[in-house]
Amino acid sequence: MSAQPYDAASLVAPYDALLLVSFGGPEGPDDVVPFLENVTRGRGIPRERLAEVGQHYSLFGGRSPINDQNRAFLAALRADLAEAGIDLPVYWGNRNWDPYLTDTLAQMAADGVTRAACFVTSAYSSWSSCRQYRENLWDAADALPGGVDAAPQLDKLRHYFNHPGFVEPVVDGVLAALADLPEEVRDGAHLAFVTHSIPETMAATSGPEGGAYVAQHLDVAATAVARLEEETGRTHPHELVYCSRSGAPHIPWLEPDVNDHLEALHEAGVPAVVMVPVGFVSDHMEVIYDLDTEAMATAERLGLPARRSATAGNDPRFVAAVRDLLTERAAVERGEDVARVSTGEIGPLWDACPRTCCPNPRGERPALCGA
């Protein structure tokens, strides 16, 4: 009897589509304030304040880089799947700008998609970085004629902050940034691992048992520092710091702010710093403004040699990690044993988020992709 031919399509069964879920961003100056109104809906922020915040975008032609980065990522992902022999349509839907999730799910339903895996461009656990996307998916599905029951079944792929395909490009980016520093300050450089600040209460309730948002970032930082020591023979001091704080001043958010941290490093006589945007998968606004523009200006003012390391972006290892997560979850849904890869001490996380995971700070709302 001859061997059965290799069928790459069977690797992704029962899924008949992949959905890239992202934040979205304005495509031009006229989009900026409407986009920010989408982002802050329900918070009562005056339009004048949104226009003030929108000035950040004016430095870049009124355009966020995130949509172009997602287009490039989609192209790379489709090419990676095709090279692996996997013929699977890949869709894209955003939380806050076109293409909106509601429109994308309507198109998927019209195309006859029955079950899709969802890859979210946010790697960590918290309400804003995980559960809110799951609520967005519910809202988009519920908006279809016939409601949620008429939508394709959606399964969110697991958190990937500690997947080698994400961590290895981050580490290599730090190595390149260190090598770019002047030789006389390189060995003493501190590493500032940077992520988006969130309210302390949200951080405290992140994950099923609380504290997951900070713990996951620290796990990646520890992995990166250990790998850097292997590569360079030196242990670089490091700290987790934050950027992009927003909201009412009286509400405590995670600190220290990256600019305050740079001030403290300078006062302590630190010779150089590498800012590592570990909380972001690509160079979107929080990276190109908060770090490349604002924090770099702070470092220059202080006379502190600084570099910013690369995000995972379109690194082939990160693109391939999506395929790995997809085929892993497909095997789980088929009832097969699965070997899950991860780095660090936390280990691979759940497939379906627990019901109590990352609660909405404004009250419970329905969400898809949970247990």
Features:
four-stranded parallel sheet, disordered N terminus, alpha/beta, 371 residues, 2 domains, Rossmann fold, 14 helices
Please characterize this protein's 3D structure.
Helix content is 42%, strand content 11%. The protein is an alpha/beta fold and 371 residues long. It has 2 domains: 8-160 and 315-333, Rossmann fold (3-Layer(aba) Sandwich); 164-308, 3-Layer(aba) Sandwich (Rossmann fold). Helix 5 (101-110) packs across helix 6 (127-142). The radius of gyration is 21 Å and the shape is globular. Mean pLDDT is 94; it is low at 1-6.
Question: Layout of SSEs?
Answer:
Blueprint: E1 17-22, H1 32-39, H2 47-53, H3 55-58, H4 66-83, E2 90-94, H5 101-110, E3 115-120, H6 127-142, E4 153-156, H7 164-180, H8 183-186, E5 190-196, H9 200-204, H10 212-232, E6 238-243, H11 258-267, E7 273-276, H12 285-288, H13 290-302, E8 306-308, H14 316-333
Parallel strand pairs: 1-2, 1-3, 3-4, 5-6, 5-7, 7-8
Helix pairs in contact: 4-14, 5-6, 7-10, 7-14, 11-13
